[in-house]
Predict the 3D structure of the following.
Amino acid sequence: MKTPYQTEQTRLDGVLVKIQDAIVANQKDLQQAQSNKEDVESGWKDVRIKAGTYGSLFETAMGVRQQQQMLQERELAMNSASHQAEVLGRLKQRPYFARIDIQEPGSDNVEPIYIGLASFSDGVDNFLIYDWRAPISSVYYDANLGPVTYETPDGTQSADLKLKRQFQIEDGKIVTLFDTDETVGDQLLLNALAGESSTKMKSIVTTIQKEQNKIIRNTAADLLFVQGAAGSGKTSAVLQRVAFLLYRYRGRIDAGQVVMFSPNQLFNDYIDQVLPELGEQNMVQMTYYQYASRRLPKLHLETLQERFEAQATGDRKKIIDLKGTSLYFKAMERYAKSLNQAEIRVRPIKFRGEEIISKEQIADIYYSFNANYNLGNRLQATKERLLKMLQGRIGNEMQKPWVEDAVQALSKEEYDSLLGDNPREFKSDDQEFKTLAKLIVTQELAPIVRGVNRNRFININNQFVHFLKTVPNLIDLAANGLSEAAWEKGVKVTIEKMKQGDLSLADMTPFMFLFDQIKGSRGERDIRFVFIDEIQDYTPFQLAFLKFSFPRARFTMLGDLNQAIFTKENAVSLQSELAELFDPTKSEYVQLTQTYRSTQQITDYSKAILTDGAEIDAFERAGELPSVQVVVDNQQMAEATKQQLTANLAANETTAIITKTLAEAETVYELLRDQTDVTVIRTENQRLVPGTIIVPAYLAKGLEFDAVIMWDASAETYHGDDERQLVYTIASRAMHQLTIFAVGELSPLLAAVPQDLYIVEK
Ligand SMILES: Nc1ncnc2c1ncn2[C@@H]1O[C@H](COP(=O)(O)OP(=O)(O)OP(=O)(O)O)[C@@H](O)[C@H]1O
């Protein structure tokens, strides 16, 4: 009798042979497609340009069209063959990682289903491997042995799950194999988690947990909100979800229609291998700052560092808070609507230093249209009228002396290039002059025409300031703890900043929204899925704006309200704000409480930093207790850091030294650079590098490291209750080892942690 191991190895050998056959066949297809493509390309030579009559032009166009179509088809064939080659290459390395045995109701047959990164069949419907995203594969992640159900596009199916088996396969050999009744065996998960951190995140496809699977496969919700503790696999699950959606809606959506907003560029870099590893293309990834900068290229927007290091207090903070509310969003909507009646701010149109269409004229045109026009139509109609006026101006302008001078001054080259393709034969000098004069005027007017087309006659800066000044009429300031005087002072600050071309984060989104309203923008309608990571750092205003900007997208939001570094208490009300934006019957809220990143000891310690961290369960993986050491000064802290680095290095662990600010990170660098190999991460646009790094806390979001050294967790650095979440985020970056140093006195936020959860180093 063969052992299960032998039977499985025999089957694996058979599958590998078939994969190899498919690779050979695919190579032939690829060569064929390549040579077909070359044939078509050389076919271009046969398309002669027959100009002259309309008929022959048409014929030529048809020829070109046909060639293009053929090229496109061949290109497609080649792309799909080369895509297939990639898939097969991946399958050859690791054909599958699990097997489930299923018995359909009413059938005597028990069918084994092997699950891998992609489907593979050796004939119609004879699947040797099922894609992990196929409906049936869900059973592997979801269910224990016995009766099970799974969702298919045609409805819910039921079956009996007879066996669950997991494999580790390396170089065509089964290294381990075990049967389990658990959803995904703890052993496999433990193995996965014991690994070392690296500069790139890995996929979790073989060990997806049941509650994560729910997030990954959800197709019903317009809003899927995932609240989860640090390290609970939100990011991992959501990347698997993108891969799932691209599979589920293949042919209907592509990776370019999926957008992910992430906390910083560093993080983008960290996760950019996961989808390719799963055989999918990356979605569009950007930070909110990048999104805004792309839309407001002329303004200097407040950066992450500026925002973090300039913590506002008093009235300034209240103003910033107000600007983030949905109240403010609605006030802006009302204001924009009122612009249909009056108060649009425009710029005069100038030509050669002279005002040719005044502000009043433009405003008159703007308000000359029917009262029931909306802002978008109004702008469009104004634009058309202005363009006509400019067109009408040409004849008039041609008679001006400057035009005559310009014609006289034309050199031979200028004359030639001005005439371009125009005929050079003129009936008279007068006709020649008129032709040239018209061309010159049109050329001079071109930038103005372009400006009108781009809405440059709307003075958006002025309009925005006018809005700010109108706010006291739109919002009850006193109810928001602000006096009119305080608000006015704030407006002055914004105006001063705008004069320098600067815009703060609090004003950035309202500014974009106002412009969109005036333009009648309908948002980016081809985007189908929007993911927002670290949702706790977004204001309700931003969320409402994103919903407006991507009106046809379904949203997945991920966040941990315990890590609200930027917005803090705002996070609490987020949920109720969302209920206003999304139909509650189409919203789903999922809570992940199990954490995977850190050892039990680190999780218990981090959890104790939070006053209400009850909803966090550590995964049972043992490690050392975090250590805390109070030192006398920076010098001693540097010494202790060096020692710890040596120990970590000996244990093969990479370390991140996390500071509060960038300035501190630079200090640490100066103290350590001579004796150890360290890299400071200064901006989010840098790359993560292997080896020890020094990083300010606001850039460490979403990342993880084998070992973390928290630099100077003293009472002086982290004193306020509002820094609790920041301290929690830092501590929860560590996978295996957490070391905390503080100069003078330990931060009260950490001093409150029960003594048995850490060791004190002397
Ligand atoms: N099902 C799983 N199988 C294996 N590893 C997992 C699983 N879920 C999560 N992990 C691991 O746990 C760690 C944390 O995951 P991830 O970064 O996705 O969490 P997160 O919730 O986004 O964390 P944070 O909010 O702190 O950024 C990662 O190393 C990830 O690979």
Notes: The domain at 621-760 is CATH 3.40.50.300 (Rossmann fold). Residues 451 and 457 are 7 Å apart (CA to CA).
